[in-house]
Amino acid sequence: MKRKNHSSLILLMMAAVFLLMVVLYSTIFSPTTTAALKSDAGQMGKPLYKLDIAWPKYTEYFTGQVFGVAVDHIEGLVYVAQRGENVPKVLVFSTDGDFLQAWNTSTLEEPHGIFLANATANPTVWITDVGKGAYGHTIKQYSPSGKLLQVLGTPGKPGSNLNPLQFDQPAEIFVHSSGEIYIVDGDGGMNNRLIKLSKDLQVLWMHGEKGQGLAQFNIPHSVAVDYYQRVWVADRGNKRIQVFNSVTGDWLGSWGSCFDDDAPYSVRLTADQKYFVVAQLNTNQVSLLEAPPVGGIGQCRVTSVIQLAEDIKPHLVDVDLKTGALYVAEIGGQQAQKFIPLTRGSSFL
């Protein structure tokens, strides 16, 4: 009897140890916990994205403050713009997370916005430079390998002229598939402008008055164009998004009710054009807003929120038009992160 009781006790102890190991393993290696250790990314509202904890494969390549990110969905490349002393200003990763190269260029001072243009034919990378040195106050066009192709503005000289074209602190550029260019020149400084240029760099229309009224700006920070000939501008200082007709420049409306707690820093459309992706730096959030169909602008409605950890400071974002993946440039986190749409295996082209 004693021997039987002893055997039962041993079996119970072994079962308890096994159960404890299962609990510990699931706690340490579960995707939710691993993601939390990386960024503390949580979801509010309807879940639309999840963090890709495997991108990039090695984070030590981030050596500065990450301000912008741009995706080449054809070649499967991700360009990351960062700032800092003695750091490469542009890093290039694959969409699978491999580090490919760093640009060895001395022509960039303080990159802010970055945009991949003409992906299907002859891709180039446009970068806004808000530096105050000999190369700053400009917008630069590069080859995918980092060769300087063109400079807009007067290097080292801030200004407001349209002929010749000058900038002070250009925040972001959006190059439409038609070749037409939209620029927000307003990351502080003397200008608060939205400028549309033709393919041959002629000014087509502009809004450039500082204020809180219709078509006035206070730090226009990000710009995007949708399929319905509408231009969306993150008017950061006024805590709203303003909307314009891309052909005429006419004011169409604005959204402000979604931004009581924090201003919009970015504006990008998801690959299916159903949502706007808006980064809010001070609340450490990335919000998904319903995109209105053609017609009236309507009211601003938040569908989903990705809540990041404190002091991550998401700044500008970009979207992979092939897979729908979302990339977020994070100043405080000194990294870029990838979020995958929950509709797995979908193609958005």
Task: Show the helix and strand layout.
Blueprint: H1 2-29, H2 31-38, E1 42-45, E2 49-51, E3 65-72, E4 77-83, E5 90-94, E6 99-102, E7 111-117, E8 124-129, E9 138-142, E10 148-152, E11 170-175, E12 181-185, E13 193-197, E14 203-207, E15 209-210, E16 216-217, E17 220-225, E18 230-235, E19 240-245, E20 251-255, E21 268-269, E22 275-280, E23 285-290, E24 302-307, E25 314-319, E26 326-330, E27 335-341
Parallel strand pairs: 15-16
Antiparallel strand pairs: 1-24, 2-27, 3-4, 4-5, 5-6, 7-8, 8-9, 9-10, 11-12, 12-13, 13-14, 17-18, 18-19, 19-20, 21-22, 22-23, 23-24, 25-26, 26-27
Describe the structure.
It contains 2 helices and 27 strands. It has 349 residues and is mainly β. The longest helix has 28 residues, at 2-29. The model is unreliable at 17-37 and 344-349 (pLDDT under 50).
**From the helix content, strand content and strand pairing, which structural class follows?**
mainly beta
Describe the main β-sheet briefly: 5 strands, antiparallel
**Residue ranges: pLDDT <50 for 5 or more in a row?**
17-37, 344-349
Average the pLDDT over all residues and give the rounded result.
89
Number of helices: 2
Strand content: 35-45%
Helical residue percent band: 10-25%
Principal-axis shape equals: globular
The termini sit apart by 73 Å
Query: What integer value in Å does the Rg equal?
Result: 23 Å
Number of strands: 27
The neighbouring-strand order within the major sheet is: 1-24-23-22-21
What is the N-to-C order of secondary-structure elements (H for helix, E for strand)? HHEEEEEEEEEEEEEEEEEEEEEEEEEEE
